[in-house]
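REQUEST ID: PR-0412
SUBMITTED BY: lab tech R.K.
PRIORITY: routine
TASK: structure prediction, single protein chain
INPUT:
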Amino acid sequence: MKPANATIIDVIDETPSVRSFVFDLSLEFTPGQYVMVWVRGVDEVPMSLSDHNMITVQQVGDATSAIFELAPGDTVGIRGPYGRGFDINNPVLIVAGGVGAAPLAPLAEAAHGMGYDVLTLLGARTRDELLFQRRFEDAGEVMVATDDGSAGFHGRVTDLLDRGVVDRCIHSCGPEPMMYALLSMLDEQQRGNAQFSLHRYIKCGLGICGACCIDPSGACACVDGPVFYGSELAGSEFGRYRRGADGVRIRV
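STATUS: complete
OUTPUT:
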């Protein structure tokens, strides 16, 4: 698909390491879907939508560093939205870690708009890195955990889970070790009610190149995901390894 030209109309510093880029282009999407963002002369990379006209980016590599240098008036190319987003099931439990909160904030808002009961477990390394806390609070109850104890519970966000919480329909995005720890806490029935948004190396977004295939099923994260049910991930590469741009396995 030919990229649509999108002009940046605002840049928002969300945390010390995360920025949101607002476009003049509005997209209809399901929370959890992504777009391919073409930074001209640099690269094209997948980015989850954090709103109908916004992506939220953490600076981690060449492409994201180039995005961080963009300002209002600059343009990028946008393809999508692509992929399978979240099925929103009531009662809602959101488990968000770090920048993984980006695709989950619109999910919380959509669920709230549907009259659903929304509980968010929001985790980050520090208080300053908590992302979209106000958006989650506007949608329902929020429990916070930070690695350094600077806000909320001192520890991992998965430490906030108990039986009553796990019995909700889970929607999760964040560091893969965090999500794998969550999956490992669930029994077979609960895995069927839990959804996880995976980060994989996506090139085409169309299920053609195979760069984002997941072992052993061969499912492509770009079209069959990036959101998968826990029952689809059990026994897969999830939580153990992923593949880099050259296809070589990288330990998670």
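NOTES: The chain has two domains: 4-82, 92-251.
REVIEWED BY: pending
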